[in-house]
Amino acid sequence: QITVLGTPAEEQGGGKIDLINAGAFDGLDVVFMAHPSQENAPYLPDVAEHDVTVKYYGKASHAAAYPWEGVNALDAAVLAYNNLSVLRQQMKPTWRVHGVIKNGGVKPNIIPSYTELEFYLRAPSMKDLSLLTEKVENCFKSAALATGCKVEIKGGANDYYNVLPNKSLQKVYKENGKKLGIEFISEDSILNGLSGSTDFGNVTFIVPGLHAYFYIGSDALNHTEQYTEAAGSQNAQFYALRTAKALAMTALDVIFKPDLLEAVREDFRQVKLKEEGQINPV
């Protein structure tokens, strides 16, 4: 049996996580998907991700007449941002922290009583993400302490897990793709590269998964106007259909080759153990 699932809100909110909680993946042996990119790869190390919204509450006052009566929430936001900039020296090369100040005050002559920041934290594993989150939250808390503001730190509804690789699925998909003329990037490029984050990572923690990437005929970068235009072109349809065929061929291999399915399940079991720290990586 083959099930086709559409995913709402992959970029914001984690639609696949809602599908997991609703039981949509229960009873499935493997799950496949493909994501457009600038290259063809059976896997890229998509990392774990945590959203955080930070709100500082101070006290408004006239900035010229009696500023000493105020408690400056913008100062707290700026200190928090600078604290994170200082933290970067002690961050691992694979960690990422990026964010914006969404609300910085109302008018220059009013001490801001409220500011809001939004940040994304990323790391290669959930374990690393937990360590990074603690360090970042300390940066937010110390800014509140220094300025006398109150701080509210709220995580997103769902964390995105890192995508777990499955070497057996990747090998078969790559073999099928080559039969269709797909040229894949090297293993070194895969291992040394970094990608974004996806709620498909959460899926790979409950069922063996394949998250491939495919070239669409353009060197434009994802999440740009140029890439949006390229993705809608007739040229991109050829590459998307070719990738779909490679996925379908891989699905047939899993269905009709019991030994392959057993290998896929064993890969899944081993990589889960590594992720949970129960065995040492080879």
From TrEMBL:
- GO terms assigned for molecular function: dipeptidase activity
InterPro entries in the record? Bact_exopeptidase_dim_dom, Peptidase_M20, Peptidase_M20/M20A_hydrolases, Peptidase_M20_dimer
Pfam short name (any one)? Peptidase_M20
Q: Where, if anywhere, are coiled coils annotated?
A: none
| Domain Peptidase M20 dimerisation, first and last residues per copy | 52-145
- This chain belongs to which protein, by name? Peptidase M20 domain-containing protein 2
